[in-house]
Amino acid sequence: MHLRIKAVATAMAAATIGAIAIPAAPASANVSQGYVTGSGTWTDDWGDEGPISASTRSYNNVVAMWQKILVADGYLAASGVDCRFGSVTTAATKRWQTDRGLVGDGVVGPRTFARAATRLTTYEGWFYYDGLGSNFIDFGRLADGKWDMSIGINLEWQPLSYTAATFDRCS
Q: Which residues of 152-168 are buried (b: 16+ CB within 10 A; e: fewer)?
């Protein structure tokens, strides 16, 4: 009887460890789609995004989104949101990554986006990034799964494109 209990306990432990080791499948977005996108549950939409950096997709609305996150967390001045991933954004990104236990390489890829997504929350159908203090960023997710946000003088909502910089302050 004692051996049977031990065998059942061992099998249960192995099953538990196996279940923990297999992560849930992330949303199936792809940079080639041209936008930050997701489907189904929103909590995993950002875990497969990027990369953006000073040398990869360095001028677009996704860069503006990342810069707004850096502003919300106190790593970049609001005047630094210009849709260009330059040296100031790179330095701020490296500090942000290092402070969160990530490799501070200045490249915003799936791990960096996934870490940022841990600060996303929802309220009455809207999404927001909860930065430091009372700093937050409003987001939406359109019916086709594209994420959008609003910045600039006219507060126009724009999809988060990897290929275009369409916010007023991006010109």
A: eeeeeebbbbbebbebe
CA dihedral 36, 171, 105, 65 (to 10 degrees): -40
Residues 99, 132: Cα–Cα separation, whole Å:
13
pLDDT of residue 22: 33
Give the Cα separation of 22 and 94 in Å (integer): 29
Sheet containing 147-151: order of strands: 120-123, 126-130, 136-141, 147-151, 156-159
Cα dihedral sign for 131, 118, 91, 157? negative
Angstrom distances, CA of residue 25 to CA of 8, 42, 89, 144? 29, 13, 30, 20
Q: Where in the chain are the domains? A: 27-170
> Which residues of the chain register pLDDT less than 70?
1-32, 152-153
Say which DSSP state 44 is in. G
Angle at CA 72, nearest 5°, toward 61 and 30? Answer: 35
List the one residue out of 36, 54, 1 whose CA is nearest residue 117: 36
User: Rounded to two decimals, what is the model's pTM?
Assistant: 0.81
